[in-house]
Design a protein that fits this description.
The protein is mainly α. Helices cover about 55% and strands about 5% of the residues.
Amino acid sequence: MEDEYKAAELLSIRIDKKLSSFSTVSSPGCSICRVPNPLRQINEKAYEPHIISIGPYHHGKDHLKGMEVHKMHYLKRLLQRREETSVQRYVMALKDKEEKIRECYAEPLDHIDGDALVEMMLLDGSFIIELIRENQSWKIRELRKKKDDFPNFNVVSVTRDLLLVENQLPFFVLLELFDLSTLVPYLENENDMDNGKEENENEFSHRALDFFSGMIPGPGIQISMTPDPEIQNSLKISVQDIKNLLGLVHVSWLPSPDVRRRYVKNPAVYSEWNLTRNATELQEAGIYFKKLNADEEKSLFDIEFKDGVLGIPTIRMEENTDTILRNLIAHEQCCCDCPRYVTDYVTFMNCLINTRKDVELLRRSGALVNGLGDDEVVATIFNRLCHSIELSEQNLYSELYINVRKHCDGKWSVWMAYLRHNYFTTPWALISFPAAVFLIILTAVQSIYLFHSYYRQ
């Protein structure tokens, strides 16, 4: 009995020790998290960096070590901007924020000591800042002509890696390093310093969005970080609220204001957020598809349905599109307070696309550009994108779902769908149907003529 009591006491002490070092207070907003396992299992490669590690989660992996020398190269270039020879200023600034940096990651970083963490933040952050700066200033080819020591790596692959959920730095680290390395005029007072810091924050955000805009598969990303008052009030966008580069892209890739007004809490249940028909079947029911022009007011999310016509902005399906969409969806799934525009969009497109025939229909209408070549591949991508995702209580297209189903359930649409499915499936059927109708009419006229001729006699 005494032995059991001692064992229980030791266990209690061990648990109490764990509790004393465990904090129940989490940092506000979304952390830099790991991709949930149900999502990762669908396509693990979409969440893994190809050539560069950023932050602690993938640091030290063998196939990513080749980029470490390029990080040193870019840190040296950052120092040269202000003709500095020491990193002391930057190290001190990051040391002061070490605890805040640790709190940004969902997983504990106890295995990384303070010096190693600060060095990682400095090297990774300097690389990102200088890459964005230089790709903003010159085209890649021109830059390589001017600088013999320009690093030779695949910028597209690096850009792809910088938009992975697990490959992120806290955004305030990037802002701090950008601010410290920016040449500014002499500032007379504290207000001028605050204004200068705010200008630097907006400038870096603008440059970063311009840098990543080429990876976004459709229109709608807002490069400016000073949006109109309506957007400011509805979304409360501010640089301080942004957690990382992926979060910056997410909060800047928006539906137009009119479409965002639909994004209100809707009493409709999940089962109503479905078209029940794919694109081919909708066409048979009398619905037409058309491409919406990508003007300044339109976004990829601005899908419209009016008078039996489904207007869809063009999406470009390219090599990295699957990865970008998956990581934006994972960001939305991990983030408890951000709108799920990308999740809603992909869910809607998955309703339209079941087979390669649906992709072909959308491609011919101009609503989809297939840079992958095979329509079957695109269909598979959309079908797999929606696996293991969780829908919220709101949906950008809840009203559109209802209107499309009402249109399809109308008597005229049902009759047209029957005719298209049974008689208009091939060109020969299309020709034979009116011929058959004409033959029936001709036979009826002939019968009436014979009937009248008989009674005249």
